[in-house]
């Protein structure tokens, strides 16, 4: 394998090195080293930065900032992020979670990217040295991104407001048939006042279920209340087909699992 | 390409080698340092046969670049037995027929060791979860799960 790694103490220097042709940033390596092992010769140089901020988690009140090099395992055990632990633990097995970073997850193609589904529902922002962009904007153009992602930021949802579900066929751990994250707020009468729903594996990257979100507003989380949202759950989806499930199957089971998540 | 130096502790002994940049830890351990206990099953992160413990955490050596381990403390299955005496996990694997062809065994042992290091008295579910990144094509998993639970019990009896 002809892969040379260059390590820089600052993101600034690493960004400069990434301008060279054939280079790619190295996060935990679970996708990029895997591709090299499989014979992908499009990458000849790996770049990484050891700047400490990349590995930091800061929580102040409900505001959270997570450095791009933070691993799924570090998030899963952080006491202030317990509401998100389920989504972090959904990624791979224990060894993968000790390596897989949040930065790398933002770039992971379906069926991967389970934690990014959570970030999309949380309305996160994605930071680089050039500033911050909403995660939706970032995901839409992620192929064009050549800058190192330094961190993601979001507000922690209110108690019990975050829901996450990953469906896989291999137990206890396997790749997603689909994953769903929802951040819901309810008025005192129980009707939904705000809904953010994100889907994984229903397109080549995580996407919002905007029609379902709209159909939930003002409705109660009962079988009748959520029926209109389930009816439009697959609006705008174009699921992947892989060895685990076909696009048709993913669309068919989406309303079933979304219903279970909303009624849970 | 010029070789680069790597230096780390392997099973308590200091190791230093010159490697090509980009060499995986699995290849460095097996081909350079001569520790063939981690196995290369898939080189894709899926089988877990290459699992090692780096600074107390389970990692896949096939997806880890050796040069990122400079200064680290690495444990492999070669480091489990002491003075010819098997580690309780190794003993339990043998007694429970938890190893058949044996290819997955070093990875299973590493995953089980990290579990017991942090959770000395695990539940069955915790054992299943801890081994969930490791594939075995022979045993059907049940003997492995039983072996880990037995080793945990024998550890706690020894400690009592
Ligand atoms: C066996 C196995 C099981 C898996 N299971 C799951 C699963 O269940 N769910 C899931 O979501 N994923 C899964 N994955 C995929 C992967 O492990 C995760 O998506 C992980 O979060 C990727 O992060 P990484 O740090 O390892 O990425 P890397 O491999 O280091 O990088 C992936 C891509 O992102 C780019 N990149 C990484 N960090 C940055 C950054 N900070 N700035 C700019 N670019 C960056 C890299 O250049 C590369 O192109 C699995 C992988 C394997 C091998
Ligand atoms: S060889 Fe590393 S996981 Fe299979
Ligand atoms: S004993 Fe053969 S793969 Fe597990």
Structure description:
The complex is a heterodimer of chains A (264) and B (160). Chain A is α+β, with helices and mostly antiparallel strands and 264 residues long. Chain A folds into three domains: 4-49; 52-155, Uridine Diphospho-n-acetylenolpyruvylglucosamine Reductase, domain 3, CATH 3.30.465.10; 162-263, Enolase-like, domain 1 (2-Layer Sandwich), CATH 3.30.390.50. Chain A is 30% helix and 25% strand. A five-stranded antiparallel β-sheet of chain A has the order 4-5-8-6-7. The N and C termini of chain A lie far apart (48 Å). The mean pLDDT of chain A is 96. Chain B has helices at residues 25-33, 88-95, 105-118, 124-130, 142-159, and strands spanning 4-10, 13-19, 51-54, 57-60, 73-75. Helix content of chain B is 35%, strand content 16%. A five-stranded mixed β-sheet of chain B has the order 2-1-5-3-4, sandwiched between helices. Chain B is globular, with a radius of gyration of 16 Å. Chain B has 160 residues and is of the alpha+beta class. The model of chain B has no long low-confidence stretch (mean pLDDT 96). The chains are: A alpha+beta (264), B alpha+beta (160). The interface between A and B is medium-sized, with 27 and 29 residues.
Number of domains of chain B: 2
What quaternary form is this?
Answer: heterodimer
Rg measurement of chain A, Å: 19 Å
Share of residues in strands of chain B: 15-25%
Query: Could you tell me how far the N terminus lies from the C terminus of chain A, measured between alpha carbons in angstroms?
Result: 48 Å
GO molecular function (chain A): FAD binding; oxidoreductase activity
Domain FAD-binding PCMH-type (chain A): 1-159
Keywords (chain A): FAD, Flavoprotein, Oxidoreductase
InterPro entries (chain A): CO_DH_flav_C, CO_DH_flav_C_dom_sf, Diverse_Substr_Oxidored, FAD-bd_PCMH, FAD-bd_PCMH-like_sf, FAD-bd_PCMH_sub2, Mopterin_DH_FAD-bd
């Amino acid at each position: 394998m002809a892969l040379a790694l260059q390590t820089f103490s600052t993101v600034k220097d690493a960004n400069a090195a990434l301008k060279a042709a054939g280079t790619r940033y190295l996060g935990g390596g679970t996708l990029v080293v895997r591709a090299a092992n499989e014979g992908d010769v499009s990458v000849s140089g790996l770049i990484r930065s050891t700047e400490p901020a990349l590995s930091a988690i800061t929580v102040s009140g409900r505001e959270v900032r997570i450095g791009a090099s933070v691993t799924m395992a570090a998030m899963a055990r952080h006491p202030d992020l317990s509401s998100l632990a389920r989504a972090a633990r959904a990624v791979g097995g224990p060894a993968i979670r000790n390596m897989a970073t949040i930065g790398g997850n933002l770039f992971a193609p379906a069926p991967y990217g389970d934690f990014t589904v959570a970030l999309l529902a949380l309305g996160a922002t994605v930071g680089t040295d050039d500033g911050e962009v909403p995660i939706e904007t970032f995901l839409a153009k992620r192929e064009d991104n050549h800058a190192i992602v330094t961190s993601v930021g979001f507000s922690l949802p209110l108690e019990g407001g975050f829901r996450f579900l990953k469906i896989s066929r291999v137990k206890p751990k396997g790749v997603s048939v689909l994953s769903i994250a929802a951040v819901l707020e309810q008025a005192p009468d129980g009707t939904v006042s705000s809904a953010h729903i994100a889907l994984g594996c229903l397109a080549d990257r995580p996407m919002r279920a905007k029609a379902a979100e709209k159909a939930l507003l003002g409705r109660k989380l009962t079988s009748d209340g959520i029926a209109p949202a389930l009816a439009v759950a697959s609006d705008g989806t174009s699921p992947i087909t892989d060895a685990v499930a076909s696009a048709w199957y993913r669309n068919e089971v989406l309303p079933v699992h979304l219903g279970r998540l909303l009624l849970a | 390409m010029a070789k680069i130096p790597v230096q780390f502790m392997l099973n308590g002994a200091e190791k230093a080698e010159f490697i090509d940049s980009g060499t995986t830890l699995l290849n460095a351990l097996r081909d350079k340092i001569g520790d063939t206990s981690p196995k290369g099953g898939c080189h894709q992160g899926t089988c877990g046969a290459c699992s090692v413990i780096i600074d107390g955490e389970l990692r896949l050596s096939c997806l880890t670049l050796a040069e990122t381990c400079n200064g680290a403390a690495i444990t492999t299955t070669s480091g489990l037995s002491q003075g010819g005496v098997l580690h309780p996990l190794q003993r339990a694997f043998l007694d429970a027929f938890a190893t058949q062809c044996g290819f997955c065994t070093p990875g299973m042992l590493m995953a089980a060791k990290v579990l017991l290091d942090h959770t000395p008295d695990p539940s069955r579910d915790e054992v299943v979860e801890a081994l969930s990144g490791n594939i075995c094509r022979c045993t059907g998993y049940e003997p492995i799960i039983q072996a880990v639970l037995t080793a945990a019990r024998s550890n706690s009896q020894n400690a009592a």
